[in-house]
Every structure is written in C-alpha cells, then in structure tokens.
# Entry
Amino acid sequence: MRFLLGALAMASVISMAWSQPASAEDLTHTKDTPEAALKNIKEGKAVLVDVREQNEWDAGHIAGALFMPKSKLDVEREAAELAKKLDKTKIIYTHCRAGRRALACGEVLKKQGFEVRVLKPGYEELLKAGFEKAK
# Structure
C-alpha cells in the first residue's frame, strides 16, 4: 500500500511538471554575436536592456543601455510600466552579468510581445567586444 501511494504521488508530481509552462531555463541565448548586436543597435534596429540590479548598474553600464532590473521585471505591474519604454518594432537584446537573469527577463518581455534576443556574454564581455562603457 505504501508503495502504491508513493507511486501515485510521484505520478502526480511528474504530471504537474509536464503541464507547467516553459521556464526561462528552457530559453536559449541568441546566436547573434556581440558584434552583430552592436551593429543592430548602432543602426537603430535594436535596443540593449541591462537587467542587472541597481548596485551593478551604478558600478558601470553600457552607454545607451536601458536599465530594467530583474527585480522590477519580476513584478507584473512594474514590468508593464518598464515595457512602455520599449519599442515593439525593435529587437530587444537583454544582458546581465552571466546570462541567466537575461534569460528570465527575456521570457517576461517576450510575453509582452517583444522580439527578444538574449545575450550570453555578460557586461564585461560586451565591453571587450566593443560596447562602450557609459561615462
């Protein structure tokens, strides 16, 4: 009997997991190189969104990037307000320090109808690739 109850509980958990919507971990980073992203941004076809937190932004950020910290994008009301700063006709590149938060935020922005391309290179790598640090 104990085995049967355990098996039923496990089947229930597995069933719930399969029915859950895709998470940010299911997303992938864009195949666009940092150079391609920079070109699209310079040509006005795209916008760079920095999803790091305030202390990271204050320590240094990329010139022209929009500041939309993950902590704010995680709150539906605040995410909608931040999204008003974006143009749905442009590609949205998200970036953070290592790529993980950018994936989660990319999911939030995609759900609001934006074409999001999540960058795997973090802030430091983007600077090395030619993005300009804000003064």
About this structure: Residues 3-25 have pLDDT under 50 and may be disordered.
